[in-house]
Structures are given as structure tokens and as C-alpha cells.
Amino acid sequence: MASNMNGNAGGAISSKTTNGKGEDPEWDLTKPLPKLPVPPLQSTLDKYLGVMKPVLTPIQFAKTKYLVDDFRKPGGQGEMLQECLIQAYHNKENWAYDWWLDDMYLKIRLALPINSNPGMVFPRNKFHNPREQLRYASRLICGILDYKIKVDRRALPIERARHKEKGQPMCMEQHYRIFTSYRAPGLKKDTQITDTGDGQDKVIVICKNQLFVMEVATETGNLSEAEIYGQLELIARLADADSANAPPVGILTSQTRDKWAASRNRLLLDPINRDSLDAIENSIFILCLDKPTCPSPDTLKIDITCLALHMLHGQGSWANTANRWFDKTMQFVVSEDGTSGLNYEHSVAEGIAVVQLVEHAIKYIEDAKLRQRSFSQSSIRNTLVPRKLCWNITSETVKDIQQASEYIDGLIDDLDLTIVRFDNFGRDFPKSQGMSPDSFIQLALQLTYYKVHSRLVSTYESASTRRFRLGRVDNIRANSQAALEWSKAMIGELDCSDEEKFAMLQEALKCQANYMTDTILGQGIDCHLLGLRECGIEACIPMPDFFKDEGFRLANHFTMSTSQVPTSMDSFMCYGPVVQDGYGVCYNPHPDYILVTVSSFNSNDDSDSAFFAMSLESSLLQMKELCLKAKQFNSVPPS
């Protein structure tokens, strides 16, 4: 794995110096990032019990506590594994990275669409003819390539921490992998491949289920918008001419990972197929020229949910799902009717890196519209002819394609997605109350889950650990005991005054803030417990009972998978649940409104995305009302 430990490469650093004026410290960019620390064993186990008590039954918790106490005793298994982990800290750049990547992504056998790959919706356009679609697509490609110039030079501005040790530089490595990485399916475990550079001047364009290799740069630099447009126009004509005979090979990437790996291995037996797969895997990114977005079957209209479903999975094998290659890190989608966005493979980067690229590209497009110059075909180099990828399809692959189509269509039918734009207030209101907007929303989600299901569950919220070398994320668990008690008070299970409820809310917010701070500073429990378990496996140590406990299984069964993905433009991200009985909640807080996407599965009788979203709106309003009441009784002088 490439290292990025100097300031010019986007790496952050470990030490800081004062500027002599008593102001914020300046960070020494000549020094490498600090390593991700190994948290103290006893601290992690105490936190673990603290977040598991609200989600386990008393009997389950009693057993879990017994096993934790046995695991943590002096000279026991916990201390032995902790020593192994400390050794891994000394031997690796980031002791958690490979274990985390395997556990979070590469060993997961579920299909990528819905289960793993997020979708992102761009500001909507309206295309009146095919030329406008291709013009927009050519500008989008130019905007992406403009951003890639900075990536290739490793010259992106270093991002800085906004909370705790403000100004501390962050690791930028994931930004530099989005154009060079590919996730190849494997039996039992996938592989993350880094491109050698052979395909760094080529993009794959998928149109009507056919794949084309398109050059976007030469020795003299990136191609012009006119040159890219000319190739896209030729691709559209070629795809239209042969659409009836094109095998929808891309649909294979929507299958479960083991089945797709087996299908890919069969394709690789043929040299023509092998050449096509190599071209896809070594390209910069994929552009999907799609058919129009399908309207809602209930209203026969195209609403914001239809746009999200289009980006998340393509809306079905009969629509646009076969016009994808889900293994590729970046897939940009431009449809005939003006819907645009992306679907991205998540193992390479978090949303922050993707949003930065997207917003650069969209701004480039807006600036290009202001220039509004025309171009002629005569400006296009005659040598630039896209190459169509060919496939030798056996009867076995025909069956694989049919099975993949049936599978993904079933998964799509099972998805229940609701999008809510909450207009009563946005992030500015919690800020006005001296509260963190993210913590405020996380507690609203806890209250909502309790109202709907009468319990709390293990909750996942991404927390960046990019202050450290090769840092990705750990988990903030909002399901605290304080959140449980406050939720009970809010629905009337506890007899409390409004003043008491507000005090309980403040306590829950404090717990959430403390947990968040610990996690971003490298003291989270999830990566630590994963590292302890994996150390034992690698050392062939018998698995401690602690890791075989039902409580530990429930700790890692994230019934609520959540994240904040803010954007500055009229765009948003969405994703599916990570477990069959769960919810996926992605929220984008703007100053005066909050956009929330809620997903679940229809096959789970206990979940309903629309009802959950409606209940979330109610929770946010309850919390605002409570805060305003608190101001009233705090302003009343004592008698």
C-alpha cells in the first residue's frame, strides 16, 4: 500500500508548535502522521459494557458482564491479546487498517448494490435531446479530469480537523485512491486492486448495456470537451446499432460476491473476455449513459425517491441496473432525461472524499455553462475512436446473467426507501442552543427507534480517524444508557418534568459528545475489539468466550447504520441497511433544513421506512419544543 507520510503528499503530522503569540498552535508539516493508538484494554471494556447495557436484556447483560470480567482479569486472555496488538502497532503503519478493511468490506459476501455501494444524486437537469445529455456528460468528464490533475500531482489542499485539536491535518490517502482502485470479487474474500497506471488515460463508457473504452488524455494533456463529446456521440450511435445483440454482462457485478467471483473466473478462461475485464479494471472511472429514470409505480411521477433509487441500484435489470459495473470505485451516471449522479464502491473511500470530487466537477459544469461556446466536429482528432469491448459468452454465462438479473430484481423489490426533507429547522437551531447538530440528530434517531420499537439497538455512526496514518473510520455508538433513560422520559414511561427531560437530554448529548471525541482521537472500541479478536486468530489462540457471546454478536449487528454526509450543493447520498432487520439512515443537515434518507427491507415485518421517517420528524419537533421550553423556565427568576 502506498504511503503518504509527508506534507506534500497530503499526510498529516503528529507534532505541533506554538506560534509564540499564545494563539492556536501551528502544525509541523515536515513530520509524519501519528500512528493510530491502541486504547487501554480496561477503558475499552468499560465502554463496551456501557453501550451494551441499554440494548441487552438483564439476563444477556449479566452473562456479557461475566465474560468481560473474565476476559479482563490480570494475566488473562485480554491482557495477552492486548500485548499482541501493541506489537502489531509497532510493526504496522496502521494496525487496524487491513483487519478493518476485511471485516467491513472484503469478507462481506453480500451483493454490492444496496448492501454496500452508496448512491448520490446530483442537482437535476432537463435534457431535451440526446445532444444535451452528451454535452453534459462531456462536461462532467472534463470536470472530473480537472480534479484528477490535482490528484495526480498529490496537490489537494490538506484537510484540517474541525473538532478537538482544531487545525490538525488529516490523512488524505483515500482521496488519492479513488481513480486507481478496483474491488475484484473472490471466493470467500474480495481483493482491492491498485491500478498500475496503464489505464490512467482511459474511461469506460456503458451505453445500452455495452461497454466502450474511451481515451480522455494524450501525451499533451486532457482532451477537450469537443473531443470527448465526439467520442460519446459515436459510442451512442454504435450502442444503438447493436443494442439487440448486446449481452448485459454488467448485471453479473450485482450478484452476491461468491457467485460473481465464480462467474468472473469462467469469463477469464477466454482471452477476449480477459482483455475486456482488464480494460474495465484498469480504467479511471466509469460513465453510464442511462435510459430515463423510471417513475414511481404509485404516482407515475418522478420524485426525489425515484432519483435516489436510480443512483442506488439502477431500478432493475429491465431499466438501468445492467448498465453498471458495481466493482469500479467511481461510476458516474447521466440519464437521457437529465437525472445524474453516481454509485461508488465504498471500500476505497468515505463520503467526504467523494463529495469533494463531485462538488468540484459540478462547479466545473456550472462554470462551463457560463462560457457556453459551441464546437464543431472538425475540431475532433480523427484518431480518437472508442473501442467496444467484446465478450465470448458461453451457455454457463448466459445462465449466470439470468440468475443475476433475477437476484438483483428481487433485492430491488425488497428495498423500502423513503426520503424526507425536514423544513422546520436545520443545523442552525441546535447550534443556537449550544448543541452539536450531529449529536442532536443522533439522539433524535435513538428516540425515534425507541418510540417505534420500544427498545434501543446497536447503532453505527462513522467517525473519522484520519488524524492518524492511513486512518479511515471507527464507530460512534449513540445507544447510551443516558439516551435510553431520556427516550423513556420523552414518551412518558418515566414521570419527569420538562426541566428534568431537558437535563436528561443534556446528559445524553454530553455522553454522545464524549464518545465522539474519544473515537476521533483514536480511543474507539470497535476497531480495538476487532484487533484483539484478529490477533488471537492470527496467533492461533483459542477464541475467548467473550467473542463467542451472544452479546458480542448483537454488539456487531447494527440495526441502525447511520452517517452524516453534508454537501454544499443540492445533492445528497443514500444507502441501504446493513442487516436484514435494520435501517440505513443518511442525513444531510443544511442551515435551515435536514434531508434524511431512510431505508429498510420490505421482507422484515417490523420495519417501515416511511413510518420511521415520519416518527423522526416528530422526534425532531419534540426536541425543539423541549429546548424552547427550557429557555422559558430558565428565564423565569426564582421566587
Please describe what this structure looks like.
With about 650 residues, the protein is of the alpha+beta class. The protein folds into 2 domains: about 115-155 and about 170-415, 2-Layer Sandwich (Chloramphenicol Acetyltransferase), CATH 3.30.559; about 425-525 and about 550-635, Chloramphenicol Acetyltransferase. About 45% of the residues lie in helices and about 15% in strands. It has 19 helices and 20 strands. It has an 8-stranded mixed sheet, sandwiched between helices. Strands 14-20-19-17-15-16 form a 6-stranded mixed sheet, sandwiched between helices. Strands 1-2 form a two-stranded antiparallel ribbon. Helix 5 (about 130-150) crosses helix 10 and helix 14 packs antiparallel against helix 15 (about 500-525). The longest helix is centred in the C-terminal third of the chain and has 27 residues, at about 610-635. The chain is globular. It starts with 15 loop residues before the first strand and ends with a helix. The relative contact order is 0.15.
